[in-house]
């Protein structure tokens, strides 16, 4: 309710006058007096905002703008990622930026508190999507699909404390690839790991390692170590922090915050500090305690098969079986994986940028069934590329080594050395555009030739076509290489073909 003292005295006097009049007279002027009061209330509410002198022009916390230079870098990164997805036969998909709140709840475990809820806008409780996986599962169930290989690039939102230096934001882009359908074991899973290797190699980020584990091995390990089943997910969430904090701190969290018995935590510690290759898988098969768990044996069997396929793909040396890998999200059911850079490129005097994992994923066979009234399951496995973290690395590298990048893809600039040649320039550039050539000109009637040539050098435009009185008279166009500054005269009717030839050869 507005503060009464802030309203204009005349407004209240008018309203009081209406109340003191006989009912018939009051009705005649009610609309006008009520309007006056409403205007007074609105003015009183707006005035404090208008008088603010400490207004700061900024983006919301955990978000950012991207300059043309940054967008050019991002587009190159995304092109590399999406072209790999398409090379593996994926179809594009998009879903709404927000979902019904009930679609997202109870899908992310302890991270559910990071979901952005929206104000009720017409009877539906909505939330911004937290990732691209749950909306994909909802799409599969809603459309009664049994198989699909899809990729999705889009923004997601998480209400967490941002760490900008590590590429962690509240609004960020995800690039997902998923294979849904009932197929023979570990073939789709191996392909997902192959895709991660192809993308990270293509982006030239340096050496990397992909950690793999299996949720069934984790659950089996928890069971034989004495973790109550009701605490499985909570303990899994703690284990997932081992890449950020020490085992001592993780143990302390499990014991003091989550009520786990100290001796149980110590048994877990014996396992989660193990990592290796196929030999470790074989070793875990022989472990006297872990081999008692049917779940764990199933997971180990799949990992053994997975390593066989990874060897055939030629990437087994990039994969590490790591029992500390947990992936805290509740929907994972089988193989899980996470890619980390072994060393981020940085100059000698600076510390390497620690951005955590740059890709992750796993198998989630039960998620689609959660949206199906009859609980019909569709097995799924997928991966997500950490675009923002990768962008942070590339951005730092470009800053360190002084790399420059073009913000446009202009191939040809249309120039003139003389006045009153705008019409000829417009006719020529239209011809280039119609031929599919990326071309520009200055939006001036009589620009100076030096200004036009400097623009080409600054923007990295490779070719300039020059038309003037002499060229018009001789029926030719001068074609200039910006890099070498060499010029040749080309017949007017052949200029498009000559430009296309040069662009093809470059």
Automatic annotation (TrEMBL):
- Which BP terms in the Gene Ontology apply to this protein? histidyl-tRNA aminoacylation
Which key words are in the record? Aminoacyl-tRNA synthetase, ATP-binding, Ligase, Nucleotide-binding, Protein biosynthesis
Keyword Zinc-finger assigned to the entry: answer is: no
Q: Residues of the signal sequence?
A: none
Q: Which reaction is this enzyme known to catalyze? A: tRNA(His) + L-histidine + ATP = L-histidyl-tRNA(His) + AMP + diphosphate + H(+)
Aminoacyl-transfer RNA synthetases class-II family profile domain span: 62-417
Q: Name one GO molecular function term.
A: RNA binding
Q: Name one GO cellular component term.
A: cytosol
Task: Kindly give the PROSITE patterns that the UniProt entry links to this protein.
Answer: AA_TRNA_LIGASE_II
Question: Which EC number(s) does the record attach to this protein?
Answer: 6.1.1.21
SUPFAM superfamilies, per the entry: Class II aaRS ABD-related (SSF52954), Class II aaRS and biotin synthetases (SSF55681)
Where on this chain does L-histidine bind?
131-133, 158, 174, 178, 327, 331-332
Question: Which Pfam families does UniProt cross-reference here?
Answer: HGTP_anticodon, tRNA-synt_His
Gene3D superfamilies in the cross-refs? Anticodon-binding domain, Bira Bifunctional Protein, Domain 2
Query: What family is this protein classified in?
Result: Belongs to the class-II aminoacyl-tRNA synthetase family.
Q: Which NCBIfam families match?
A: hisS
Name used for this protein in its record: histidine--tRNA ligase
Organism ancestry: Eukaryota, Metazoa, Chordata, Craniata, Vertebrata
């Amino acid at each position: 309710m507005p503060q009464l003292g802030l309203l204009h005295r005349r407004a209240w006097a008018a309203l009081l006058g209406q109340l003191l009049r006989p009912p018939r007279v009051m009705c005649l002027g009610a609309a006008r007096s009520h309007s006056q009061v409403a205007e007074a209330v609105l003015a009183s509410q707006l005035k404090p905002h208008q008088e603010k002198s400490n207004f700061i022009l900024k983006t919301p916390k955990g978000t950012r703008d991207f300059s043309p230079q940054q967008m050019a870098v991002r587009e190159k990164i995304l092109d590399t990622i999406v072209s790999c997805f398409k090379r593996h036969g994926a179809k594009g998909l998009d879903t709404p930026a927000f979902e019904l709140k009930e679609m997202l709840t109870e899908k992310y475990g302890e991270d559910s508190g990071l979901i952005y809820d929206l104000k009720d806008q017409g009877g539906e409780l909505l939330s911004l999507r937290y990732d691209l996986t749950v909306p994909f599962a909802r799409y599969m169930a809603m459309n009664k699909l049994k198989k699909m290989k899809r990729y999705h690039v889009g923004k997601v939102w998480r209400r967490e404390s941002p760490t900008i230096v590590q590429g962690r934001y509240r609004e960020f882009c995800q690039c997902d690839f998923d294979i849904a359908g009932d197929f023979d074991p570990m073939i789709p899973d191996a392909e997902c790991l192959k895709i991660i290797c192809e993308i990270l190699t293509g982006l030239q980020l340096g050496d990397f390692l992909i950690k793999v584990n299996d949720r069934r091995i984790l659950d089996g390990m928890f069971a034989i170590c004495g973790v109550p089943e009701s605490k499985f997910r909570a303990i899994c969430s703690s284990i997932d922090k081992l890449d950020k904090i020490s085992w001592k701190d993780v143990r302390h969290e499990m014991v003091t915050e989550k009520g786990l018995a100290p001796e149980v935590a110590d048994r877990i510690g014996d396992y989660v500090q193990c990592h290796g290759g196929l030999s470790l898988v074989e070793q875990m098969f022989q472990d006297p305690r872990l081999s008692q768990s049917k779940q764990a044996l199933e997971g180990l069997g799949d990992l053994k098969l997975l390593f066989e396929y990874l060897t055939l793909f030629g990437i087994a040396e990039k994969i590490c079986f790591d029992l500390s890998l947990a992936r805290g999200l509740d929907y994972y059911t089988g193989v899980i994986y996470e890619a980390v850079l072994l060393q981020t490129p940085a100059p000698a005097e600076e510390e390497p940028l620690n951005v955590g994992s740059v890709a992750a994923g796993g198998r989630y066979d039960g998620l689609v069934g959660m949206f199906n009234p009859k609980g019909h399951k569709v097995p799924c496995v997928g991966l997500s590329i950490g675009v923002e973290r990768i962008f942070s690395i590339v951005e730092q590298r470009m800053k360190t080594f002084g790399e420059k990048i073009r913000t446009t893809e202009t191939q040809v600039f249309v120039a003139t050395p003389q006045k009153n040649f705008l019409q000829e320039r417009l006719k020529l550039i239209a011809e280039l555009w119609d031929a599919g050539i990326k071309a520009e000109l200055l939006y001036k009637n009589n620009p100076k030739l030096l200004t036009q040539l400097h623009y080409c050098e600054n923007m990295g435009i490779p070719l300039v076509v020059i038309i003037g009185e002499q060229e018009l008279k001789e029926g030719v166009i001068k074609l200039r290489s910006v890099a070498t500054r060499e010029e040749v005269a080309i017949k007017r009717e052949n200029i498009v073909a000559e430009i296309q030839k040069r662009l093809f050869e470059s």
